[in-house]
Amino acid sequence: MLKIRSQSKTQTILSSLWHYRGFMLGSVKREFQARYRNSMLGAVWMVLNPLAMIVVYTVIFSQLMHARLPNASSQFAYGIYLCAGLLTWGFFTETVSRMQNVFLENGNMIKKLNFPRICLPIITVMNAGVNFSIIFGLFLGFLLISGNFPGWAFLGVLPLLLIQILFSIGLGIVLGVLNVFFRDIGQLFGIVLQFWFWFTPIVYTVTTLPAGVQGLLKFNPMTALMVAYQGIFVSGAWPHWSDLWVVTLLSVALCIFGLQLFRRHAGEMVDEL
């Protein structure tokens, strides 16, 4: 009975999202256009800014920090390692940071318009996905030009991104709902993200840390994802799927909990806003 009820709720949510797909796509388009409406170069900045970042990380940092990856064959190894972590981490932080404020920022819309509120987190993910796609596409272009494309192992990025997006959505919805009732959540999570970044192997490798600290990193759900991304782009190695089951289960559990929390407090949120 519970299984049938759960399936029914899931089907209702998916049906609502599909019915309002035009609304969500239109919102993404409007935000993209509004971001560069009064800029002379317009959307060109979407290319110039990440391109400058990739050049700095892959060319300059690779020359300065090559010793950090002594076993890597490519001269751009450290820069690729850095970009693989920073770009995907940036996608994660942009998604979660924006989702924690999505109900507060759209309070007037929630009060005045009748639409499924769950559309708002999905719109946030789509907006972050557009930005990430442009930056990531430039990174892939660099890998192709420099002869460092990982080959068939690149397909392993797709399930990794799916797991990361599920994790981001679940965590983001939970934070977004809580932030409506406890406004300090947004400020606190900003501080948490700073520590979380340095507790994730992005600018350093796991092997450079003491054994005791390496053990602690296993409790960080983003560690397995970052190591898998970096393994693909630096070594052309497929992810160790057995290392990802914990973060996968956590991502699904967070999504389920987040949706239940949202459905339970949706009415109260309108009063708070």
Please give the largest β-sheet. none
Based on CA atoms alone, the radius of gyration comes out at 20 Å
Query: Could you name the ranges where pLDDT drops below 50 across 5 or more consecutive residues?
Result: none
Q: Bin the strand percentage.
A: under 5%
Helix content percent band: over 70%
How many helices? The count is 12
Order of helices and strands: HHHHHHHHHHHH
> What is the quaternary state of this protein?
single chain
**E-strand count:** 0
Can you describe this structure?
By secondary structure, the protein is mainly α. It has helices at 2-19, 21-35, 45-64, 77-99, 102-105, 107-112, 119-146, 157-181, 184-198, 211-217, 221-235, 245-272. α3 (45-64) packs across α7, α4 (77-99) packs antiparallel against α7 and α4 (77-99) packs parallel to α8 (157-181). It is globular, with a radius of gyration of 20 Å. The protein starts with a helix and ends with a helix. The relative contact order is 0.13.
